[in-house]
Input
Amino acid sequence: WATFVIYDMTEKKQLSEKSIRHDGKELIHIPEQNTMYFLNTGVSPTDIIYTKWDDSLEITYRDSPYHGDYKFWSYIERFGNQSKLITGGGDIFNVEDYSFTHEANIFESTSHVLENVIFDADYFYAVVSSGNNSLYESDKKIWIEKRAVSNPKVVIATPEEMKDIRANNLSFVDGKVFLLANSTEAIKKPSYEIYCYTFDKNLSQID
Output
């Protein structure tokens, strides 16, 4: 069990709370819905849980209608500024009316995993991996892709595959796409190198 709390940062006081039967991670806020979405943890299969509150700050929660039908892996993110979610399995769900309508999967291969995604106006950049989903496997390949929000199944640009790295995060730095990564040996070693890759917005590698 966990506790969901609404806290007023200005007044520095708790306004409401609700005990829920799921621990969670990857907390995603869609403010126009007064809703938080997250992945449950410690149970199988992984599911998407949403917690919402009304004007009186009464908190309710529910899970998605899917229980193992899709591979969420360990990642969800809001799809741009829309009332949609994209998961680690590449599935896009419309949650505008909490129906979790499945709209598309951006991948052609079921072995691909979405590791991280960032959005920039009409485009998004995704860190994608293939091979064994274990972080310990040296044959895991990771690369980044540029796709259009309006047509997310089509890859617009991708640099040459970068082998033997484990991507951590994408971000925009000074108008460029910045990828932070480390060696696949990182978990096994007490010390390891961190790699920083910089690309322009067409994914031409700068350094």
